[in-house]
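Researcher: Quick one. two chains, 303 residues in total.
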Amino acid sequence: MAIDHRLLYLKTTVALAVLTLIEIGVSYWNLPRFHQIGLLLTFAIIKMAFVAYVFMHLYYETRLLRRILFIPIPLLVYFLLGLAYDATFEWTF
Amino acid sequence: MSHTINIKRDPFGHASTGKLAMWLFLAMDALTFGVILAGGIYYRLRTDQWPDAGQVLNIPLTSFNTFLLIMTSFTMVMALNELKMDNQKKFKTFILITIVGGISFLGIQVYEYYHFIKGGPELGKALNDYGFSEASLLWTSGSFGSTFYATTAFHGLHVFTGVVYLSVILYQANKGIYTSKNYDRVEIAGLFWHFVDLVWILVFTIIYLI
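Model:
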């Protein structure tokens, strides 16, 4: 018989909903732009990790598969943070 | 005569070939989304015609849509959970709720597009504050319009694909194909659906909130 994960899925859904509410609050909060973008991206990454690890069962996959899937992510995050930094200080090319 | 048996552990564990293929497809699709979003950020850096968060785009409506998509992710994972427990009726019900949730998400997106394309004095005033001359937001309304429509429409196409995909799964479920021993295809469909939710988290943050 398979293990019943109902409670875990329910807790994850509640966590995602709460994080979304916090995100919306942060978007209306009059914070310095760089801090606001940093916070919003951090919350988004946490939420994405919840979905990938719990709902997509990535937690139960092998290390090799996780590594293959994660290779492009640091590059993308680095690129997005670089652009966010650029946008904050209004540097132009 | 002695025999030696070499047992090699599969580096991908118990994942089926179909599941591995879906994971690789999703990794590729994630990069496509990443490039579209990065393109949008780049355009944003290069133009002053970009409304602040909540000035043109409707955050409360889209927040509701975000909650809706999170709920469909929950119902999708619950469908798989119930199938593994051999609760056929609950499995089908959860799949059906997921499909209805996906259609509702698309309906709200169509309403949002209709509102922007039709335009109006209030929208026109909000757009004029950021240097736009039209009273409606079209895909030709500068970098902002093209980025907004390209990103959300590409995501919407994924939701539509997911709805069709899950409808096929439900049709097959009604024929009694899936059991607690045969759920691989449902799990693979679930991966696609959760990916749609995962991507929306980033789209919502970058396009609507930042």
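The two ends of chain A are 60 Å apart (CA to CA).
Researcher: Thanks, that's what I needed.
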